[in-house]
Design goal:
homotetramer; four-stranded antiparallel beta sheet; alpha/beta; Rossmann fold; 22% helix; 2 domains; Vcp-like ATPase, Chain A, domain 2
C-alpha cells in the first residue's frame, strides 16, 4: 500500500492492492489506475485482470487476454500529468520543470497558485514541495475545483494543498509566501494583490500565450517595484531513438506560452 | 540563522548573521555569500560592509560606499548554480528542470549520480529530494570531489549527499535506487552497472553533447532491456523585457547537450 | 498568353486563356491550373467555370456557383512547389531559399542536380537561373522523370533543363559547372564524381535527414579536398496573424533535413 | 575580365586582372577585392602581391609572404553581403533566401525596395532579378545612397538598380511592380502607397524586429484589403563539421526579425 509520505512512488519491488500503477502498451498508450481486487481493465488491445497485476515485479512485461504485451510501471510524474482527466489546457512538463528551477519551488516551499484549473500544475507543485511545504490554490469555477480535488486525492497529494474558491481580485488570504504563480489570461490585473501576499524578494511567475499579454504585464510589473524580470520561452525537440538514423522527429510543439518571472523588491521612491 | 530543513531558504523577513545572501547590482552581476559580523565585500561598484546588511528587510535596496545600488535577496537556486565555483561545464537550469520532471526526482527520492564534477547538479538534486531523500554521487577526481563537498556544505545540503570516490566500472554500491543520472562522456560503458543498481521501471538519464555519443548509447540501451527511450533537446530563448519593443534577445545558447532517458524493464527472452 | 522569358509570371493586369492561374479559397486551399475556354473546375466549395475567370483583373474576388469566395492570383513559386503532383518528399521553401543564397544559384548559373525526383527543386532552380542558365538533372527512375518533365513543361521551364537518365556512379556528363546539389540518401558515394564535374571553388550542396549520414559525408569531404564545409539546419516558425493576440502557431515542422555545403579547392599534398 | 551579364561570377578557370576575387585564410577571415596589376594586399597573416594572384587557377591555395595559406575563390554571394562596407544592420542570408522564395523574386522581376540602407539587400535583389529585371530602391539619406551606389557598382550590378532619393510618404514613382519590400521601422505608415504601386496579387514583404511593430502592421494590412498574410521567423542553426563529434555549435543568432508577407487583393465592399 502507498505510504503517505511517498505519495505515488512505491519502494517495494512488487505491486500490491492499492498501488497506483501505469500500464503501457506497444504504442506507448498508457493507463494509470489504482490496483483493486477482482477489477478488470478494458484496453484497445484486450482485457486485463487486475488480479494478474497484483504481486508482480515492477517493470515486468504482462499480456492482455489476446496476447498484447504491456509493461507495468510505477507511474512517472510526467505521464500522470499528461493523463490527467481535464477540461482545460495544462502546463507542459518542459515549462513546469523550468518554473520549478527558476522559482526554487522545492521541499518546504509555500506557494500560491491561481487558477487551479484541472490541477495538473497543482499536482506537480504538491509533489515537489514535499510534506513540509504548502500549496494554496485559487479557483472560482467550483466544478473545476472538484475535479482537481479528485485528481489530487488519487495521487495522495491532497493533504499538501488548500483548494480555495475565492475571487483573487479581493486578494489572497496568505502573506509572505515564497512564490506565486498565475496561470490566468489577465495576471496584470492582480499585481497589487501579488505584492501584498508575496514575501519581498520572493518569486512571481506566470505563463501567457500572446505577446500582447506579455507587453501589458511587463508595463504593470515595472510600475509596481518588481525587479529581475525575465521573459523566456522553452522549446522541446524530440529525436527518433534510432541509432542508425538519428534525427529529430518531423513535427513539434512550437508554442505553449511565454514564461514571465519577476521578484518584488523594496525601492525608496522619493 | 538557517534552519536545517530549509537549507538556504529563509522564512524570516529580515536578514541575520549566518544567512546565505545574494547581492545583485545594476547589471545583474551578483554576489552570493554568508553574512558575517565585521566582514567587508569588495565589488566592482564599491565596498559594502556586512554589518550594513544585517537585520535589514529581504528585498531591500542598499548602497555601496560610492552610492551604487544593490538589492539584497535570498539567493535563488538558479543563481546559486550559475555562481558555483567550478572547473567543469555544468548542467544548465533549463536541462535540470526537465530532468527533474522527466525522472520524477523530488522529495524522498534516492538517486545515483556520476560524476559529481563541480557539484552543481548534485546541489540541485540535494535541494529537490528534501530531507527524506538521498543522493549517492560518484567521482574519481578527489580534487573535484573536495570542491563539490565545499559547495554542498555552504548551502547546508551536504547531509543529503554521500560523496563517493570509486570507479563506477566496478559498479555502484547501492541497489534499487529510484533514478540514476550519468554526466559522463561514455555512459554506454556502464549500462550493465546501471541495470544492476536501478530498480526495475526506475529512471535512467544522461546528457551527451554529440550525436555520435547518443547513437552509441541508443544501441547499447536496446540490447540491455531498456524501454521508453526518449531523446530530447531543450532550447531556451530569452526575450527583452521591453513592453514597447518586445522581441527575443539577439543571441542564445544553441546547444548544451542531448538528454537521453530510459527505463529498465523485465522482458522474457526465450 | 505566357511570354517565354517570363515563364508563369504574367505582366498583364487581366487574365487570358493559356495563363497559369491560382485560385485560393477561404481556408487557403488552392488550385493551380491553366485557363482554358469552356473548362470547368470542381472544388470542395462549388463549381467554377473557366470562362468566368477569363479577362478578369488579377487579385479579384470571384465566387463559385454556390457563392463561396475565391481569389484569382498569379501563382506564387512557393505555392507551385507545394502543389506539385508528387510521389516523393520534396524540398521545403525554407531550405530552397537558403540553398540558393548559399550556393549563389541565380541568373546564368549552370547547375547539376541529382536526383530529379518530382521535380520540385528542379522547378525552383529553373526559375532562378533564368533564360541564360542551365540545369542538368539526373534521375534513374524513368517514371519519376516523366512526371518531372510534365511539371516543368506546365510552368514553361522545360527549356532550361536537361533531364538525364543515367547512373551518376558513372559520373556526370558536364564539367566545370557552377554548382552541384545532391538530394540522395548516399551522397558520400559520389564525391569523386562531384569533384570531376564541379569547377574548383564551385558550390557543392546536399540535404540529409539523419546525423549518421551527415557524419559519413563529412568524413569523405575532408579526404577529397573540400573546404568551407558548412552544416546547418533551418527552422521556420509561423505566427498567427492576429494583431490582438500575436503568438506563434501551436505546432511546427521540426525537421526536414541537415543542409551541408562545401567547396572543392586545390591543395598541394606533398 | 568580368562579362557584363554575369556580374561577379566568372566562367574562366583562371583569374584575370579586373576579376572580383575572394581570398580566405585559415580562420575563414576573408578579403573581397578587385585584382589589379602591381597592387598589394595587407592581411593579419602577411602581405600578398596581386601579381601572384593573376592567372592562377580558381580554388588554388596560395601563400602570403610569411607562409600563411589562403584560398583564392570567386566570391560567394553570401560572403559578398557579409563583407559589405556598411553603417546599418543588414538582412541575413537566411532571411533573404526565404524572402526571394516567398515573394518569387527572380529573373525578370520588377521590385521596389525602401530603404536602400547599405545596399546589401539591394545587391541580393539585383543579383537574382538578372539582366531583365529592375530594382527601384528608395533612400532619403544621401550618404547611405552614395555608399550603396559604390557597393553595387563594384559588383557590376548598378545597371539593374534605380537609386532614388525621395520620401516614400509621397508615394513611389512606379506602378504595377511585382513586389515591394520595406526594411523600415514604420511600414504601417506607407501601406496605402504600397497598394498604389504594387500590382494586384503582387507580393508585399517587410522585416520588423519587435512584436509591437508586427501587431501594428497586421492591423493596417487588414483594413487595406491585403490577404494571404503570413508572419514567420527563421532560425538558422550551425553544426560543427566534426564527423566524430557531430553537434550544433554552442551559440546562435536568436533573432534578426519577424518577416511579414501579404498580397493586395480586390474585394467588393458594399
Amino acid at each position: 500500500m502507498m505510504a503517505s509520505n511517498q505519495v505515488f512512488n512505491i519502494t517495494e519491488r512488487k505491486t500490491s492492492v492499492g498501488d497506483l500503477v501505469e500500464l503501457v502498451g506497444m504504442t506507448h498508450k498508457n493507463h494509470i489506475f489504482i490496483l483493486e481486487n477482482e477489477q478488470i481493465l478494458h484496453t484497445h488491445r484486450g482485457i486485463i485482470y487486475h488480479n494478474d497485476l497484483i504481486d508482480v515485479k515492477w517493470g515486468s512485461q504482462i499480456f492482455s487476454h489476446n496476447g498484447s504485451p504491456f509493461f507495468i510501471l510505477q507511474p512517472s510524474l510526467e505521464n500522470i500529468l499528461k493523463n490527467l482527466p481535464r477540461s482545460t489546457q495544462i502546463l507542459y512538463p518542459k515549462d513546469i520543470g523550468y518554473i520549478l528551477m527558476k522559482m526554487g519551488i522545492g521541499p518546504g516551499t509555500r506557494v500560491i497558485e491561481a487558477g487551479t484549473g484541472s490541477g495538473a500544475f497543482t499536482t506537480a507543485l504538491a509533489y515537489f514541495i514535499g510534506c513540509n511545504g504548502e500549496i494554496y490554490s485559487y479557483e472560482m469555477r467550483t466544478q473545476m475545483q472538484a475535479n482537481a480535488r479528485k485528481n489530487l486525492s488519487r495521487f495522495n497529494l491532497l493533504g499538501r494543498v488548500l483548494l480555495k474558491t475565492k475571487d483573487i481580485a479581493d486578494g489572497f488570504d496568505e502573506t509572505d509566501v515564497d512564490a506565486i504563480f498565475l496561470d490566468l489570461p489577465n495576471p496584470f490585473d492582480y499585481i497589487e494583490k501579488v505584492r501584498e501576499s508575496l514575501k519581498k524578494g520572493g518569486h512571481f511567475g506566470c505563463i501567457l500565450p500572446s505577446a500582447n499579454q506579455v507587453c501589458k504585464l511587463l508595463a504593470v510589473l515595472k510600475t509596481h517595484d518588481f525587479a529581475f524580470i525575465d521573459v523566456v520561452e522553452i522549446l522541446l525537440r524530440h529525436y527518433k531513438d534510432d541509432s542508425e538514423r538519428f534525427r529529430p522527429v518531423d513535427r513539434m510543439v512550437a508554442h505553449t506560452g511565454f514564461l514571465i518571472f519577476a521578484r518584488p523588491v523594496i525601492i525608496n521612491h522619493e
